[in-house]
Amino acid sequence: MKKRRVLLALGTADIGKLLVEYTIPAIIAMIAVSLYNITDSIFIGHGVGVMALSGLAVAFPIMNLAVAFGSLIGVGAATLMSIRLGQKDYIAANYILGNVCILNLITGILFSVTVLIFLNPILIFFGASSQMLPYTRDFMIIILAGNVVSHTYIGLNALLHSAGHPSKAMHVTIIAVFMNLILNPLFIFKFGWGIRGSAAATIISQSSVLAWQIWFFSNSKSSICFKKDFFRLKKEIVKGIFAIGIAPFLLNATACVIIVLINKNLSFYGGNLAVGAYGIINRMAYLFVMIVFGLNQGMQPIVGYNYGVALYGRVTEVLKKTIIIAVAIMTFGSVLVELFPHSLASIFTDEKNLIDITTTGLRYAFMFSPFIGFQMVVSTFFQSIGKAQKTIFLSLTRQVIFLIPLLIILPKYMNISGVWISIPISDLASSIIAVCLFTAQYRKLQNKKTG
Question: What span, in angstroms and rounded, lies between the C-alpha atoms of 402 and 388?
Answer without folding.
Answer: 20
